[in-house]
Amino acid sequence: MLHIVNKSPHERSALADCLARARAGHAVLLIEDAVVAATRGSAATLAAAPAGVSLYVLSPDLQARGLAGQLAEGITAVDYRGFVDLVAAQPRVQSWL
Amino acid sequence: MLHIVNKSPHERSALADCLARARAGHAVLLIEDAVVAATRGSAATLAAAPAGVSLYVLSPDLQARGLAGQLAEGITAVDYRGFVDLVAAQPRVQSWL
Amino acid sequence: MSEGVTKKFLFVNRKAPYGSVYALEGLEVVLISAAFDQDVSLAFIDDGVYQLLRGQDTKAIGMKNFSPTYRALEGYDIEKLYAERESLEARGVAEGDLLVDVKVLGREEMAALMDEQDVVIGF
Amino acid sequence: MSEGVTKKFLFVNRKAPYGSVYALEGLEVVLISAAFDQDVSLAFIDDGVYQLLRGQDTKAIGMKNFSPTYRALEGYDIEKLYAERESLEARGVAEGDLLVDVKVLGREEMAALMDEQDVVIGF
Amino acid sequence: MKIGILVNEGPYQRQSSDSAWQFCQAAIAAGHEIQRVFFYHDGVNNATKLTDPPQDDRHIVNRWSALAQEHKVDLVVCVAAALRRGIVEENLAKGFRISGLGQLVESAIQADRLVVFGD
Amino acid sequence: MKIGILVNEGPYQRQSSDSAWQFCQAAIAAGHEIQRVFFYHDGVNNATKLTDPPQDDRHIVNRWSALAQEHKVDLVVCVAAALRRGIVEENLAKGFRISGLGQLVESAIQADRLVVFGD
Predict the structure, then answer these.
(1) CB contact under 8 A, A88 and F119
(2) pTM of the model
(3) Which one of the listed residues E67, E78, E93, E111 is annotated catalytic?
(4) What are the tens digits of pLDDT across the range D5-21?
């Protein structure tokens, strides 16, 4: 499963709600305002990710917000091509709107 | 000041963000999905309201969601007329969108 | 309709009703899906459990009360409704407060249910 | 324009940029307000502090980078910009990361600022 | 008392426009004046006359038009926000007018209170 | 691989439509097929030809129309959601067609993946 989250963890529960149901082997991709959760200063929410869940962030959205230099450890930055590859690699996609 | 909040405290930080800046003499009115914060089962967020802040909930929105019988103690239910009166009684209004 | 393909569909409801149109328009998709002979389930998690409360009365806000539609789903052969126990408990909602029969699953069972679907659509 | 009335306006920015249009269209209101000779202040609290980060580069998302506009506010005589210390700290944002000079206020001072306004508009 | 209203979201998707309209009705019934309703952001989508909701649902656009007609409420759509979203004279519903953002600032100055409805 | 897309929000107000379009471009460049883009909820507002954003901003509606033309992507607007929001044949942009919700379910059945963009 690829989980997609697009909301800031400071403003919405979406990322926490997603992580509470993610399982080993799943991937979580942060896009749009959710990219702030991938920065060193706001990484607390992602720390709740279960073991075996891979974490990704969409770099175009990180760059747009001036956060490209703030990427926390353990999170892989991908471009839109990488987003597409994640969709293809996982058997299904769930957006946490 | 009349603070208006319209988001569920389970989904968004708006109510907590509002209460963190509310001061004695202010009023907080819960409308739309925020009315769930006025129910006995979800009253934890409102417990952080500073002393001297008056708490109100819009009863039409509470009724719509089937929660009219669940009103927690210390919160006053008002109709739209009561909403208007609160706007008139407080010197200004701030919506926490 | 689509050459006899049957997929497992899960519609995940995570939002309270009336504050946004997602619950209502999500239900419209569910009803349409019945015509396609798919294996359809509905999950109610997080604020989505509020959609199922008894006693919704929308007269004073001038909006349509669509909650009776959940009871009508059975007539469309949509019978797999699940609510998450942790979501109910966090909101002080008891199973007896719900307007339709649902199967209550623990969070781990709910995650397992999500994990066995072909298509997951959230509203 | 309105018979010489001067009110204290506070525009409260609480949302990150680009994910929604509020930051951009909020800034458009601020610019217009300059023409009305009002006493205008801007507050950046909660996720609104992200609007002020240096180094925003929107090329790869195809959207317009409007962050230079914050630097242009001074030319419109809009000089009272405030950011909340607690909001910056909770996000690991340092004052030096910001693209424009702002006065950093503690939460209690920010609440006091809000309390002395005539009009508060949040975006 | 003179009350100005700001609506930031479109019809049907979120409750903001419903809440704003109910508030206006109640305010007028209580003897207040709705000095202006300004539609900004997606709020401009409240002004399209092409809306045609199901028979058993409320007609949000017509409800605003009726408010303008019955109580002479000034309904103003922000021109810049409207152009971004495809609201122009051609599809503008009765009772609405398109104007600049200055009308919002002016409303905030002239009204005793400004109440914002949005997301 | 065949990928279906669901867009739940309108243009400009939220990033959903931008993200969906960028994703479609990248998927096509990677050799995948965008089997359909279905516009639901406020997503139907992506289909109005009356949109006229500032010169220095992207034109979201035209961008979708170009995707349909250049890559024969099927852009479907939900009729029920569109009627609620004033999107009809009269103001429909090039490359979009109005049809029923069944087209979304069909897309989910026929495509290998369904990716949802919204709020």
Answers:
(1) no
(2) 0.97
(3) E78
(4) 899 999 999 999 999 99
